[in-house]
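Input (structure):
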């Protein structure tokens, strides 16, 4: 879910930069058939997150929440629709794995998860395999209805034919079968705010694995990293350098020094009284 962050510029570029990176996080995979007996199935439900920005994103204090075709996200009183994330950082152009319901023996174990939705003997997220909705929040407030969730969620995905809370007007082609997962296109990068257009239904073969399930230790999305470079900030923090794409840098009113350029010390030195930022850009390049 893409959000407008320009209003945050009034609060300073550092705040806006953090917000821009956070808004680049989205749900990239959903699998709700953990522990079924079909060949090739995973042992656990899972939700994979992806950071489509050049900066790391701290997700401590965030939460992943589930709703079925009835009720709200993480309904008050339920014990199987909520995963608070107590700590964790998603690397630039990287991933974060949330593990849900886990069968004791059936299915292939997941790669190491970065957050477990498992309480003392109780699965805190037990996803519907066919359809449902997942919301990613930058807080841990529960019991939001669909409209409330859409207003504040970092990302929201309604999956399957019967999903009644989703982004966009389209409907996914089918419900997922026991050996299928919902996978965002372009390695998690595509986000048109239309779930039906942004996701494919992919056959799961956990032994391969297909699709590849990522965590924070997985390689970054190369198509994302290939767009990152040094961005010199102006305004609230003159001289500061962040890694960003040219588009992200322009949105922050920064000077983009080029793809692959590192933020070396002094690369974004504040201009002198006789220099403009445009002159500084020429000098750097």
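Output (sequence):
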């Amino acid at each position: 879910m893409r959000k407008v962050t320009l209003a945050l510029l009034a609060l300073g570029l550092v705040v806006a930069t953090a917000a821009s990176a956070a808004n680049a996080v989205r749900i990239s995979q959903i699998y709700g058939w953990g522990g079924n007996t079909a060949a090739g199935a995973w042992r656990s439900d899972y939700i994979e997150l992806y950071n489509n920005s050049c900066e790391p994103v701290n997700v401590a204090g965030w939460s992943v929440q589930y709703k079925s075709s009835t009720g709200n996200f993480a309904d008050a009183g339920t014990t199987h629709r909520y995963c608070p994330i107590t700590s964790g950082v998603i690397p630039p152009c990287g991933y974060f794995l949330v593990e849900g319901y886990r069968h004791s023996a059936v299915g292939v174990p997941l790669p190491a998860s970065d957050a477990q939705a498992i309480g003392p003997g109780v699965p805190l997220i037990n996803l519907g395999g066919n359809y449902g909705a997942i919301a990613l929040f930058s807080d841990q407030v529960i019991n939001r209805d669909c409209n409330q969730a859409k207003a504040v969620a970092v990302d929201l995905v309604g999956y399957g034919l019967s999903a009644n809370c989703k982004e966009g007007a389209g409907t996914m082609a089918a419900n997922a079968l026991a050996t299928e997962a919902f996978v965002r296109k372009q390695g998690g990068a595509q986000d048109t705010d239309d779930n039906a257009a942004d996701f494919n239904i992919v056959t799961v073969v956990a032994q391969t694995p297909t699709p590849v399930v990522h965590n924070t230790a997985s390689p970054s999305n190369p198509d994302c990293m290939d767009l990152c470079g040094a961005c010199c900030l102006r305004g609230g923090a003159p001289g500061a350098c962040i890694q960003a794409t040219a588009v992200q840098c322009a949105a922050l009113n920064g000077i983009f020094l080029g793809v692959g350029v590192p933020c070396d010390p002094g690369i974004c030195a504040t201009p002198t009284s006789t220099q403009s930022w445009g002159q500084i850009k020429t000098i750097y390049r």
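Notes: The longest strand covers residues 44-51. Confidence is low (pLDDT under 50) at residues 2-16.
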